[in-house]
């Protein structure tokens, strides 16, 4: 599958075509991309399970569902490789399925829409199970599956009343791996070395779990039923529709906070002696600021990657405005969230929001190494190994009376340290105007702050580009293709649940993602790629 | 929301509460009145000898060695010793104890496996005594292995594999704030099942303890029955029908998948089959189980319900009116409930292997109810960073006086954990199991830590205490010092692998090794007849 080169303009034009404009010809879009990869089977995350059962049984107040926490690896909760089984989790699945089934079958007539006393059970329940099965398993039941469920329903009729038996069937479905997992089997045989097209339903499930964290809604399910989602155009059309839903916005915001590591902002706590201003409410507001910013930037304002980094504004309420030292208009109620401009000498975009600055800091002071490592790992997807035990043995206690830059002189003077810290410190020390809770400070306890830094433009080339302050760094990052490639890599982790997205896929996506590509158009490019509608079978395919 | 929230609201009562808003965090005031309704089975009434139990009590962040070390004259008999200030709460049970000094995690040396962050190492080696393995995600912040694991099972799971089939739950792992979303995975749990045969990285299956007494309660009630034999059988038959069906679905789906995906399903199918086995066992003996009354009350506090309903953004009104973290975790109260539940589970013979994990390595707990004097951060782990005048990773330099203050505070903290252990010993000892033996007598109850001297962040000279004679096998009322006046170091002391060999022998598991095979044999002269 060769990729053809296109001019940037043509590519952008092609992307804009995907909106559905009648004037362009979608068939001319380069839709190939690199060979689709193997995506490991994923289990529903705890959040996906809860959203799914909520959607399966709308209108019911479901019982409290408790599961062991999903493992968080590399910031994400949905990586397949960390979804190990455990006895406790399986007990919890059994218990949840049982209590949900009990609640919804309290009145079987309402649930199934028919009275099993008036007709016979099979006539009544058959269609109901077919429909529930299709929604729960995200595909139509096979006739064997339908028969199996009906057989389970009929078991032990002398001893178990109809509602109880119906509850057992629903319980079984909610414990089935066909519900708990998202298998991808595809259409047709699997000749070795060939990619396999996903079924329409499988594409629908990918779309819905990616964009809404739950099962396909009625319209998407309808498109799946009609077999429409093997068409790239239909996939993009559905994606664009879903993107207008609040749920999708929440989902994409969630990706960003996980990527940035700010999803736990509202749980942050700081040393009250060092930062008396910080409390749970402030943490809550900081989390909300980032949430508002992402929503408005990505969806209302058609934001681009560059804007995430370079925005000249943010969103605050009264208390947060006070904290940032931003004037608050007298006539506006202080609990409202409004957009305010930023002083571009100090703050710019996501990187200077309280959520990020406070998360990437110690309880009682800043953490420039952590901040530098954050930019290095999460924005550039570069890595340095942790210090070896021999190097750790060389650590000396810090002199906290000095500025951070002076505390870490050894990072520069000792070759063993400098090996790695030459990359990290120039990215972290420029944050020093922001204290451990994200407040601006001109000096550090009266000592001047040197906020100069540098980014190595090409990894390993030694071509360091200097900058001063975070706005300076943000401007450089916004122009680096590597930063966009990193964003896509993180994105793909979230979409596919894979630990290690393929380099060829990332390279290809990079060509469709310029600094001015709207993030919502990036979604279209992702779902429009062959990788979304095809997959490569894994080892030992049946 | 038109409420005007402002910055002058009531400040958080506690100084620092990092752990406060955990998903599934717990409310206060979960009463357990039903404990009073327990009428546990009288083991005496049975014709079989009381079963042996194994328990683990974990407290984190090492100890202050000079205040932990028992007092013993040179060349004194093992029975001739005095308890230290930290161990003083155990005085009433001195005759039931074996105190062990100089225990080393020898297996944590470089030659036995990759070196992870010091807290990953300690927490993982503590009960497995075998080299770690890395996972595909490699290492992250401060060399924490992001998805690594132990290279083998923990001693409790090893014993559960041998004896767990005799009880409804093969083992029970309880935690108190063991889930901390800020900490990497390997510091948060200590128990491991066997190595997953399908895992190409050969990682042991991690077992996360359950922090919520209500969930522990659900695990116990899910394993007990109430009602007539007929009712019990009917309920079990229903469960079995569903489990059979689900099992078939796993097989059906597996047929359609490739190897890697099949392995993932197998991990889960194993658990379905385990539950099915449990149900089958219950069906063979469908009598009301020992703990009558356990189904009587299901306590869930309204505060916890509120916490659980929250998603990523919290309810601003609640924060504003209740000030700080309304998902109050109440470390002590939850710990109390967990201790009681663990004892109940053992007493009712729902399991014979149980462990209680207080917090995690890198514990962020602030023991604010103790009279701590240090004016800096009182998080447990951070105090160990600051208390040593020696160099430790990224610790700030403190003067001698401050170091002494912190060490005194940490002594109080460790003494508090000794009091909790003593509480459990008291309750266990009060349970009569016939033949003049208490539940404590029939048990082996190990108190261990993931570090030795907290401030040094090493795993040599790790403080360990055994309580109970395991059915008369272990002579108690003794103190063994394998270190003497030497400086703690690898090679100076006793490899804890050997302790685990001694322990496994007491549970009928033969074999000369546990964990790293380099370390052979039990601890000499600990158990008569065990060499």
Brief account:
The complex is a heterodimer of chains A (542) and B (531). Chain A has helices spanning 8-17, 46-56, 87-104, 108-112, 121-136, 143-154, 162-175, 177-180, 200-211, 218-225, 232-242, 246-260, 280-300, 305-310, 318-324, 354-359, 368-379, 389-392, 404-407, 410-413, 415-428, 469-479, 481-496, 503-510, 519-528, 530-533, and strands at residues 42-43, 181-182, 196-197, 313-316, 338-341, 443-444, 447-448, 452-456, 464-468, 534-535. In chain A, helix 3 packs antiparallel against helix 7, helix 12 packs across helix 13 (280-300) and helix 23 packs across helix 24.
Indicate the proportion of strand residues of chain B.
5-15%
The low-confidence runs of chain B, each spanning 5 or more residues with pLDDT under 50, are 1-45, 293-306, 308-314, 389-395
Task: Describe the main β-sheet of chain A briefly.
Answer: 2 strands, antiparallel
For the secondary structure, the number of strands of chain B is 12
Task: Name the strands of the widest sheet of chain A in spatial order.
Answer: 1-2
Distance between the termini of chain A: 25 Å
Q: What quaternary form is this?
A: heterodimer
């Amino acid at each position: 599958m060769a990729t053809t080169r296109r001019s940037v303009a043509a590519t952008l034009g092609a992307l804009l075509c995907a909106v559905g404009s009648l004037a362009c010809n979608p068939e001319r879009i380069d839709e190939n991309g690199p060979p689709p990869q193997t995506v490991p089977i994923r289990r529903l995350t705890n959040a996906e399970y809860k959203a799914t059962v909520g959607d399966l049984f709308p209108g019911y107040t479901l019982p409290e569902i408790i599961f062991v926490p999903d493992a968080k690896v590399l910031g994400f909760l949905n990586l397949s490789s960390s979804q190990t089984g455990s006895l406790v989790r399986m007990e919890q699945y059994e218990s949840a399925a049982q209590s949900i089934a009990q609640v919804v079958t309290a009145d079987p007539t309402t649930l199934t829409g028919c009275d099993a006393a008036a007709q016979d059970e099979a006539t009544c329940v058959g269609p109901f199970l077919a429909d529930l099965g299709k929604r729960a398993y995200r595909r139509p039941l096979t006739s064997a599956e339908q028969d199996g469920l009906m057989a389970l329903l009929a078991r032990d009729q002398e001893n178990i009343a109809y509602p109880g038996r119906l509850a057992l069937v629903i319980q079984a479905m909610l414990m089935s791996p066909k519900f708990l997992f998202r298998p991808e089997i595809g259409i047709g045989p699997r000749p070795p070395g060939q990619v396999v097209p996903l079924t329409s339903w499988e594409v629908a499930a990918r779309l819905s779990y990616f964009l809404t964290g739950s099962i396909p809604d009625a319209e998407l399910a309808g498109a799946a039923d009609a077999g429409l989602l093997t068409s790239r155009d239909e996939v993009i059309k559905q994606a664009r529709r879903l993107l207008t839903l609040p749920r999708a916005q929440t989902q994409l915001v969630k990706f960003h906070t996980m990527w940035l590591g700010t999803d736990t902002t509202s749980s942050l706590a700081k040393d009250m002696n060092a930062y008396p201003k910080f409390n749970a409410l402030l943490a809550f507001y900081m989390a909300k600021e980032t949430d508002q910013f992402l929503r408005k930037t990505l969806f209302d304002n058609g934001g681009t990657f560059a804007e995430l980094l370079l925005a000249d504004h943010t969103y605050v309420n009264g208390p947060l405005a006070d904290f940032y030292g931003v004037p608050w208009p007298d006539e506006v109620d202080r609990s409202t969230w409004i957009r305010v401009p930023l002083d571009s000498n100090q703050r710019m975009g996501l990187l200077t929001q309280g959520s990020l600055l406070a998360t990437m800091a110690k309880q009682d002071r800043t953490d420039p190494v952590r901040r530098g490592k954050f930019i290095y790992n999460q924005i550039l997807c570069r890595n340095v190994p942790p210090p070896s035990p021999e190097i750790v043995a060389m650590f000396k206690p810090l002199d906290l009376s000095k500025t951070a830059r002076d505390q870490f002189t050894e990072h520069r003077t000792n070759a063993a340290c400098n090996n790695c810290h030459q990359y990290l410190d120039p990215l972290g020390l420029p944050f020093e105007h922001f204290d451990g809770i994200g407040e601006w400070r001109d000096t550090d306890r009266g000592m001047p702050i040197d906020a100069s830094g540098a980014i190595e433009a090409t990894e390993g080339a030694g071509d360091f580009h200097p900058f001063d302050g975070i706005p300076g760094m943000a401007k450089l990052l916004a122009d680096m293709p590597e930063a966009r490639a990193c964003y896509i890599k993180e994105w793909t982790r979230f979409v596919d649940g894979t630990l290690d997205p393929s380099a060829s896929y990332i390279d290809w996506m990079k060509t469709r993602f310029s600094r001015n590509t709207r993030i919502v158009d990036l979604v279209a490019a992702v779902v429009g790629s062959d990788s979304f509608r095809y997959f490569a079978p894994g080892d030992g395919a049946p | 929301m038109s409420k005007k929230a402002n910055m002058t609201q009531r400040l958080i009562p506690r100084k620092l509460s990092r752990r406060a808003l955990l998903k599934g965090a717990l409310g206060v005031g979960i009463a357990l009145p039903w404990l009073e309704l327990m009428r546990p089975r009288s083991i005496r009434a049975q014709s079989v000898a009381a079963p042996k139990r194994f328990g683990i009590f974990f407290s984190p962040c090492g100890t202050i060695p000079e205040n932990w070390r028992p007092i013993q004259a040179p060349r004194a008999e093992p029975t001739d010793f005095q308890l230290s200030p930290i161990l003083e709460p155990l005085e009433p049970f001195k005759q039931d104890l074996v105190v062990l000094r100089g225990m080393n995690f020898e297996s944590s040396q470089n030659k036995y496996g990759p070196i992870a962050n010091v807290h990953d190492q300690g927490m993982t080696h503590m009960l497995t005594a075998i080299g770690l393995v890395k996972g595909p995600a490699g290492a992250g912040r401060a060399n924490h292995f992001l998805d690594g694991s132990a290279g083998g099972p923990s001693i409790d799971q090893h014993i559960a594999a041998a004896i767990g089939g005799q009880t409804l739950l093969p083992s029970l792992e309880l935690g108190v704030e063991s889930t901390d979303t800020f900490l990497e995975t390997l510091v948060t749990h200590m128990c491991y099942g066997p190595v997953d045969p399908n895992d190409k990285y050969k990682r042991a299956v991690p077992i996360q303890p359950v922090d919520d007494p209500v969930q522990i309660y659900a695990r116990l009630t899910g394993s007990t029955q109430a009602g007539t034999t007929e009712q019990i059988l009917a309920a079990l038959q229903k469960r079995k029908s569903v489990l059979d069906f689900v099992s078939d679905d796993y097989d059906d789906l597996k047929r359609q998948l490739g190897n890697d995906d099949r392995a993932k399903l197998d991990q889960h199918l194993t658990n379905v089959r385990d539950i099915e086995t449990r149900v089958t066992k219950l069906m063979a003996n469908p009598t009301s189980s020992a703990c009558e009354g356990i189904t009587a009350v299901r306590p869930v506090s309204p505060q916890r319900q509120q916490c659980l309903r929250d998603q990523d953004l919290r309810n601003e009104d609640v924060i504003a009116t209740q000030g700080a973290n309304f998902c109050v975790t109440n470390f002590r109260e939850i710990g109390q409930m967990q201790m009681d539940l663990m004892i109940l589970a053992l007493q009712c013979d729902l399991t014979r292997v149980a462990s209680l994990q207080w917090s995690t390595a890198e514990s962020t707990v602030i023991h604010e109810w103790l009279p701590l004097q240090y004016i800096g951060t009182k998080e447990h782990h951070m105090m160990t960073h600051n208390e040593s005048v020696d160099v430790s990773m990224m610790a700030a330099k403190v003067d001698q006086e401050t170091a002494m203050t912190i060490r005194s505070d940490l002594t109080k903290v460790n003494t508090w954990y000794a009091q909790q252990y003593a509480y459990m010993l008291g309750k266990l000892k009060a349970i009569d199991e016939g033949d003049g033996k208490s539940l404590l007598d029939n048990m082996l109850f190990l108190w261990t830590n993931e570090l030795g001297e907290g401030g040094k962040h090493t795993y040599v000279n790790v403080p360990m205490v055994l309580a109970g004679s395991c059915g008369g096998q272990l002579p108690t009322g003794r103190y063994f010092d394998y270190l003497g006046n030497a400086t703690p170091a690898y090679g100076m002391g006793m490899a804890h692998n050997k302790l685990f060999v001694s322990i496994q022998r007491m549970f009928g598991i033969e074999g000369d090794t546990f964990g790293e095979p380099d370390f052979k044999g039990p601890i000499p002269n600990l158990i008569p007849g065990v060499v």
